[in-house]
Amino acid sequence: MSRHVPTPHAKTMHLKTPHTRLQQGDTRHQRRATAIGAISVFLWGLLALFTQLSGNQIPPFQMLAMTFGIAWLLMMLKGCLYGPSPLRVLRQPGRAWLLGVGGLFGFHFCYFQAMALAPAVEVGLLAYLWPLLIVLFSALLPGQRLHSLHVAGAVAALVGCWLLLGKGDTGFDMQYWPGYLLALCCALIWSGYSVASRLVARVPTDAVGWFCGATALLGLVCHLLWESPVWPENLTQWSAVVGLGLGPVGIAFFTWDHGVKHGDLRLLGVLAYGAPLISTLLLVLSGFAEPSLSLLLASLLIVGGALVAGVVPGWLQRRGSDWRFKQGQK
C-alpha cells in the first residue's frame, strides 16, 4: 500500500510568508482605522439632539463659528499637552489647506444657503447622497475595487435614509431648484473631500484643528455680514453648544479624517447612513419625536445595507480563498 507524501506545494500552503504577515497587519490597521472613522457616525447622530437642547435659535453661521472655534481650541489644547506642537502642524501643503477648509466650510456654507432657498426635507434628502457618492468615488482611487454588493448596500441604506428623512410626504418642486442645486453641491463637496483626503494621507489629523479654526473664522465673517447674534439663554443651552463643539463638530471630524485616510472608504460610506438613524432614535428616546413604522423600516434598510456592504463581500472573499486552498491540496 503506497504511502501518500505531501507535495512541497501543499506544505507551503500552510506557511505564513513575510508578505502574508504584512498583508494581515495592513488589514488589521485598516479595520482599526475604519472603526475609528465609524465613531464619527455615532457623534453625528448626536447632532440633532444637541441642536434641540441648544434651543435651536442660534443663527447657523454664528453656530458654525462657535462650534468650530471650540473644535480648534480642543485640538490646540491636545497639541500643547501631548504634542505635536500646533505651530509645527500649521505648516501643511497648500492643497491640504484648500481641501480641508474647502470641505469643511464649503459643505456648511452650501447647506445653510440651500436651507434658506428650499424646504428642509428635500435639502436633507439631496445632501445625504454623499455617503453613496463616497462608495462610488472610492473606486477611482489607486488600488481600490468596487464590489457590486457595496453599491447594493449603499443604495439600500440610501432608501432607508430617504424614508427616514422624507417620511413619505415630500415632493420636489422645481421653483426651489437653486436650493436643490446647492444641496447637491453639499453631497459632492463632502464626498469629494472624504475621498480626496486619501490622496493627502501623510497630512496628520492634528492639522484638521487648523482647518476647523479657519472654518470658524469664515463662519464669523458670514455671521457679521448676514446675521444678528442670538446667545444661549441658560446652562443647558450653553452645555449643548459646547457638546456640539467637542463631539459632532469636534472629535467627529478628527476621527473621520483618520478613517477616510486609512480605513475602508466603501464601508464608511455605507455606515454613514447610520447617523440619521441614530439621530432619530435618540430624539425618540428623549421625547422630541414619536416612534413610527417608517422608523422601523428605515432601520432595517440601513442596518441591512451596512451588513450587505460590510460583511458579505468579506465572507465571499474568505469563502473563495478557502475553495482555492482546497483545490491546491488536491
Outline the secondary-structure elements.
Blueprint: H1 8-12, H2 18-45, H3 47-53, H4 60-82, H5 86-90, H6 94-117, H7 120-127, H8 130-137, H9 148-166, H10 177-196, H11 208-226, H12 235-262, H13 265-271, H14 274-285, H15 293-310, H16 312-329
Helix pairs in contact: 2-12, 2-13, 2-14, 3-12, 4-11, 4-12, 6-10, 6-11, 7-9, 7-10, 8-9, 8-10, 8-13, 9-13, 9-14, 9-15, 13-15, 14-15
How would you describe this structure to a colleague?
The protein is an all-alpha fold. The protein is built from 16 helices and no strands. It has one domain (39-329). The chain has helices at 8-12, 18-45, 47-53, 60-82, 86-90, 94-117, 120-127, 130-137, 148-166, 177-196, 208-226, 235-262, 265-271, 274-285, 293-310, 312-329.
Overall form: globular
Q: How would a crystallographer describe the biggest sheet?
A: none
Task: Count all strands and give the number.
Answer: 0
The proportion of residues forming helix, as a percent range, comes to: over 70%
In N-to-C order, the SSE pattern is HHHHHHHHHHHHHHHH
Low-pLDDT runs of 5+ residues are 7-15
The class by helix and strand makeup works out as: mainly alpha
Radius of gyration, in Å, reads 23 Å
Strand content: under 5%
Counting structural domains, the number is 1
Average residue-wise pLDDT: 87
Total of DSSP H or I helical runs spanning 4+ residues: 16
Distance between the termini: 20 Å
Entry summary:
By secondary structure, this protein is mainly α.
Structure characteristics:
330 residues; mainly alpha; 16 helices; 75% helix
